[in-house]
Amino acid sequence: MRAAWSRGEKLGAGLIFALALALRLLHLRGIALNDPFFALPATDALLYHQWAIEIARGNWLGEGVFVLAPLYAYFLGLIYAVFGSKIAVAMIANAVLGALSCTLVVAVGRRLFDRRVALIASALVAADSTSIFFGGMLASANLVVPLVLLLILAAQWAHESPSGVRWFGAGFALGLCALAWQVLLLFAPYLLIWPVLSEHTSALRRAGWSALVLAGMAVAILPATLRNYAVADEFALVNTGGGISFYAGNHPHAKGTYGMPRVYSRVVADAPVERRQLFAAVAEQVSGRTLKPTEVSTFWARETLEYIATRPGQWLRHEALKFGLFWNAAELWNDRSPTAERAFSWVRRLPLISFALAGPLALLGMGILAFEWRRLFLVYSVIEFHLIASLIFSVLARDRMSAIPALYLFASAAACWLWERLRSRRMPSFALGLAALGIAAWLVHLPLNRENLAMAYYRLGDRFVQLEQWDEAIEYFGRSLNRDPGAVSTWSHLALAFEARGDSHRDAVHTWLRVLDLARRQEFHLHAARAEQHLRDLGIEPLVAPPGAH
Questions:
Q1: Whose CA is closest to 69, among 166, 139, 14, 160?
Q2: Is 337 helix (H, G, I), strand (E, B) or coil?
Q3: Euclidean distance between CA atoms 232 and 65, whole angstroms
Q4: How confident is the model at residue 300 (pLDDT cuts 50, 70, 90)?
Q5: 187 within 8 A of 213, measured Cβ to Cβ
């Protein structure tokens, strides 16, 4: 057990907290002025915002089984009830959570590593570009990160000074984590093993502590389970999206990250409510009857298992790709691109910390400290859990974000180890460490993923259209087409933006002619008919395509 915080530690942690908060608030200022998603949140963010407004108005129970993990919505609902139902209020709350996470990193680091490692890791998290980016979104990961750190602290405290109350508290902390991200239920085996690793006590007592961990989890999760049963007459521990998420990461066209089968609309499928309706419709059509949400989830879980059983070779190749992507520098996304939106925030254009830089150091640190796994069991377990969750479902930067503090603790430890070897002139071990770091950097930077910036720019253009900012919409549709010049839908949206701007008749005509040509070549008849009608409205009679022309 560590001694009380020294004055220097308090000062360092306070300065890092202030730095983290300042970076996040300045980032929010930038995206509030420039990023269309700030004014018009999409997908999960929109659902959380609307859900929190209902909670703030007093509708605590809501309707139907939870679509997403509920804790973040209730957290926002409480914030809205006190400070008003504005997106800016939620973003400021995210900034505070992010800065608080940095302080928790110090607490975890000084307990499991040392003070120097703790403060360096905290500073890395404070300046982490991915964490700052997601702090500008209504994403449950902003709450998951500090909860996971609190879970580590609670479990470590129970292990060092065991008592029934402390082990119950560790289980309760895991239950709260699961309410913020249901996948964290998979961390339960690690937490149940942790009391067993305690020394100098009987097996019966350790089994009792594990039982108290389960009891703490149950007390935390039970209200959500009872609410689902009372409101929707369904038994669902937290929410019912598991089967769909399982399938989205494991199907014939999967690419390691969260992705929909090609027959489904990507834009629709990224919206949680529409996604549930789409998957429910397909499941009911195949089953020939109306299904409850839990039955829909079960249907898609079975479809996934059938795919794995019938195409084990392809699935194993997908798993190998996921393994590589988890350790890769690429920041994988499913609705908003950190790369495309960097232009909206001068803070994120600074030379910040990223997994591309800290990832190799983290791998080195995990290797250096491998023989101390028992002491660092919880930190290793958090990373391993995130890896396993990625292998089961899919790899996303948003989900990896709650592993970042643990990874950066190892990165900090590796940096300190290299410095000590250099300072003490232990050159053979220093050279060996540098060689290992070079191999790790090569692995982290393997070109395993090509970011779909065409889709990212298209979505930004679409958001600017909704804000009636036509110049910006035209710019981003153009950027999208520079990367995917054959996208008929993007050309159509660009033509509509030219029309809406009102001073671009010639550009609109040329763009609709381009749409018509591409649509005929690609046999997109609806797009072709739409282009013909808009050209007539603009005073241009389109040429009739010859029979059989493509």
A1: 139
A2: coil
A3: 6
A4: very high
A5: no
At 174, which amino acid appears? L
pTM above the 0.85 mark? yes
Side chain identity at 232, as an amino acid letter?
A
Q: Which residue has the tokens 């930004």?
A: 460
- Tens-digit pLDDT profile for residues 266-295: 445 445 567 778 888 889 999 999 999 899
CA distance linking residue 62 with residue 225, whole number of Å: 14
Q: Write the pLDDT tens digit of every residue in 18-68.
A: 999 999 999 999 999 999 999 999 888 999 999 999 999 999 999 999 989
Contact between 155 and 189 under an 8 Å Cβ cutoff? The reply is no
Mean per-residue pLDDT for 257-262?
Answer: 69
Single-letter residue type at 389: A
> What pLDDT was estimated at residue 550?
40
State the pLDDT at residue 257.
81
- Axis crossing angle, helix 188-196 with helix 377-392, rounded to the nearest 10: 150
Q: Which among 183, 181, 452, 441 has a CA at the least distance from the CA of 327?
A: 441
Average pLDDT over residues 403-425: 97
Measure the CA–CA gap between 317 and 522, rounded to whole angstroms. 32
Considering only CA atoms, which of 418, 227, 391 is closest in space to residue 317?
A: 391
- Within 8 A by CB and 6+ apart from 161, the residues are 1
Short-list 143, 147, 196, CA closest to 167: 196
Nearest Cα residue to 517 out of 480, 536, 492, 482: 492
End-to-end CA distance of the chain: 74
CA atoms of 39 and 468, how far apart (whole Å):
12
Q: Report the alpha-carbon distance of residue 221 to residue 180 in Å, rounded.
A: 10
Tokens 């990212």, residue? Answer: 456
CA atoms within 13 A on the CB side of 15: 10
- The predicted model gives 376-390 an average pLDDT of 98
pLDDT of residue 43: 83
Q: Are 316 and 384 in contact (CB under 8 A)?
A: no
Count of residues in the chain = 550
